[in-house]
Every structure is written in structure tokens, then in C-alpha cells.
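Structure record:
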Amino acid sequence: MKHPFWTVPIGPDVKSLGGSPTTTFIIRVHYFHVREEILRRAREAAPLLHQGKRLSIFADFAPSVAKLRAEFGSAKRLLRACPGVKFGLFFLAELRITLPGGALRKFTDPAAAVNFINRDLGVPSPYLRVWG
């Protein structure tokens, strides 16, 4: 499916010099389905490279939504230590955990998610110290 605005030329005037901060672009698209298509293609083509440099594409969220999503950071860190467990953060801020057996758990409360991970998956929280 070809469309003229899906290719964004990056000319010599739009680049970051070596050692300097990265260049950030905010691209606004008119249609939601176009935004979703861009994000889907970026995921499928990962890692995206341009002249040997890695490109990252992220969805932009309102500050209130970004704050809700950031609260799941500790739960996501714990889940990365769980072999065979898949997880994703869905809009607005819902953490979905797929267990190795295929069971699905959904959480909208970060504390409940951390409690589930610690209790049912046996991953100790790095913030708890065990005295023995």
C-alpha cells in the first residue's frame, strides 16, 4: 500500500552532528488510521536505520496519560525478569500480562500489578529487603 506521505526524506540540513543531542521530530497526522499504520510499520521494520543511525518512533501521549503509563514502570521492570511471560501496556494505561500457560491478566492499578508479580510469579521486588 503506497502513499506519498509515508516516505519522509531526510536531507543533509536535518541531521545531528556527532556527539550532539539527537534531533527530535514531532509529526502530526490527520487520520488516526495513518498514525496506527506508521507505528505498526515501525514495529515490523525494527530496528529502523538511516545511514547507519538508529531511528525511534514513539506515540505521543497527553501529559496526564503519560503519567499514568509511567506508573507501571516498576511492574514492567519486574516482568522483564520473568521467563516466558509476555506483557504490553495498552491505551490508556492497562497492563496486560500473558502467562506461560496462555492465561491473560489485566491491570489498571500499578500497585495491584506489582503485588501480583511478587506473589504469583515469585519475583521479589527490588525495593524489599529480606532479612534473614
Observations:
- The longest strand covers residues 86-90.
